[in-house]
Amino acid sequence: MDTRVFSPAALCDVLNQPGRYGKTAAKVLETCALVAAADASWDPQEIRDFQDTEHIHEKVWAKLVAIAKDERLKKVDPSTLPKSYTALYALVVMTQPEWDAALQQDVINQDASSRSILDWTRKFRLGTPPDHQEVTLTLLLERGLDPTQMSELNQELNIVSRKYGGTISVGKLGSRVKAALDRRELAQRCFDRLKVLLRDIVRHSSEDLRESFGIFTGGELARSSGKVFTAFVVRYLAEKRCSLLPNDEDSIVEHYPEHYLVYSAYAAYQSNSTIGRMRNERHLRRLCGRHSVYLSPEMKEVIQTYAPDLA
Question: Phi and psi for 259 in degrees, rounded to 5?
Answer without folding.
Answer: -55, -45
